[in-house]
Each structure stands twice: as structure tokens, then as C-alpha cells.
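step 4 of 6: structure.
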Amino acid sequence: MICRLFAVAPGLALLLAAVVPLASAADWRMEAAGSRLEFTVLFEKTAAPGVFREFDTRLRFDPEKPADSRLEVNIRVASADMMSADINNAIRAAEWFDFARFPQAEFRATDIRRSEANRYVARGMLTLKGVQQAVEVPFVWTTVPAPAGAKGAFASMEGELNLRRGVFGIGSGEWAATNVIGAEVRVKFRVRLRSDG
Amino acid sequence: MLRNSTTAWGGPARFLHWAVAALVLVQVALGLTAAGWRLSPAKLDLFVWHKSLGFMILLLVVIRLIWRLANPTPALPAGLSFFERLGARVSHGFFYVLLIMLPINGWVINSAANVPFSIFWLVPLPAIVAPSPTLAGTAENAHFVLFSLLLLLLVVHAGAALRHHFVKRDEVLSRMLFGSQGK
């Protein structure tokens, strides 16, 4: 009896190894309420805040085994709001985001690695204004207690990174100069995620 | 002589008068140029200059008012009619009102339009009203009306000064100039 059990064990372990990572790499969906994607750029040496009002995140992720992850972020660029009617009117133009031709941006990553206890880095491709660029997105993963009465698991991803607008041709022609509108764009995100198993 | 007397303007009062006069002329040129410029980095720079100068003018006018209240005001020349005296009082009063209102009105435009701005690219300016494109439009119209009144007043003011000097031949203009010796 004991002998037979030992004989089966390696096969069982193999089976578990194959199944468990898949089972625990949960599928997460974004909760739009409580999620924010912000950006800040210097406008005449003064911080000009902006936000993408509409974006969505899908994630397959196990914080203990990030190797099998997949991150997809879709951003409706045309939902950009820089809190000023004048500026919002300007950024829709071809020199800036060009809403008409490039209403969407996306980030795709399948390479997520842990850097510290709850810190990870997603390496992927950002497609923005028709330009593809490899981007590293660092984030902090935090499990969040479920709201009263809610089922499933809740977590948040938060992080910040710098992008150079020139790489994506955002601010072209005379706007490519960086003394009036800064070159660096600080991107900040806080994504609330929910998984049903 | 630093302080004013009942017959002469002191150095600080004269300096403040001409400093504000020079800044207002530059400010008018900047404002008209900036408003007419096509949207470009140069336009944004022109507006930073215009708004920054507006704050300098506001500051100088406040200092002027404090200095004026802390000093005697030189008397108008004898022999002016009631209407000449009234005109002088009213037009100078309006000048102060407009020179205070124009920058504050500009501040309202900037706040309502919610355009990020730092005075001379250095000091971030807090908003005095909530963002509102409607209010920004109204305040812009008011800015133009106030500017037109200021222009009208400038013509009256300079015309009256020249009249005092060349027609009435009194000291009203010369006592504001730097070459003259206060008595």
C-alpha cells in the first residue's frame, strides 16, 4: 500500500505543478470606480495635471508566481481631461494626441517580475499615437479587504513612471521644444481590481 | 527729498508714477500682441509675461496707494475751476480703481480658464475662482472693457497734463518730472 502510494506521488506532484499555477493565477477585472490614470506635465514651468477618464485593465496575475502573468490596459486617449477647456481644446489637435486618428492607446505585457516584497515590474509594449515603445511599468500590489457583502478577491495596483512625450510625437512641430511644455510626463495610476476566482 | 510735501512730489512718488506708467504701456502692447497671436509656444510665453507684469503693476499700485496715504498730497494749483478740480479728482480715482481691477480681473480669467501659471515662471499662482469656461469668457470681455476705459483715461490724463504745462503754464506736469526740484 505504502509502496503504491510512493509510486503515484511523483505523478501527482507533476500534475499539481502543472495545474496549481494556472488555478492560482487569477483573472482580475478593473473596477472603474476607484481607479485612476493621471498624468502631469510642466506647462510654462508649472505643473499641469491631466487624467484619462476612460481606461480598462485586464490582468492574469498571481503575486506569488508572477511569471505566468498577462497585463492588458486599454486607454481611451480621447477621454483625456486636463481640467481646462482651453487646454482640452488644444490637446485634441494633430500636433498633440490627435484624437481623430489615434483615439486609443494600449499597453500589453506578459513579462511581470517581482522586484521586492510587494513590488513588481511589468515590461511590455505601449502603443500611443501609433508609436510602439517598450516600457517598464513598476507597481505595488496590495490585496484589499472585500467590501461588505461583496464576493471575490480585491486588490490594487499602484505605480508611477516617466514617459517622454517626444518619443510618441505628442507635441510635434514647434511644440517639440521643451521649454514651454516639458519633455517628461509623469504618469500615475491606481487600479482597483476584482477577481471572482 | 523722499516724502511728499503740500507742494511737491517726493522721489518715491515720482518713481512709482513713471514705473507704473512705463509698465502699463508695455503691458498694453504685450496684451494686444498675446491676444492676437496664433496658438503657439510664443503666445504662451507672451501671456506669461503679460500676467507677470500685471502682478508687478498690482503690487506697485498698492505700494503707491499706501505711500500716497502716508504722505501729504501736493495741492492742485490755485485758480482751477470747480470742474477742473472735480475732473482731476475723479480721473485719478478711476486710475487707481482700474489699475487694481485690471490685474484682479486678469487673475479671475486665469483662474476660471484654469491655465497653470507661475509669476515669471517662478511663483505658482493660486486660483481665486473655481474653473468655469463661462466665467472666463465673461471676465475676458470685462478685461477688454476695463482696458478700453484705461486707454480713454490715459488720453485724458496725458492731455490734461500737457494742457497744464503748455496752456495753463502751471507746475502740475513739471513737478512730476525728475529734473524738477521740489519746493
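step 5 of 6: annotate
 - Chain B has a mean pLDDT of 96.
 - The first helix of chain B runs from residue 11 to 36.
step 6 of 6: archive
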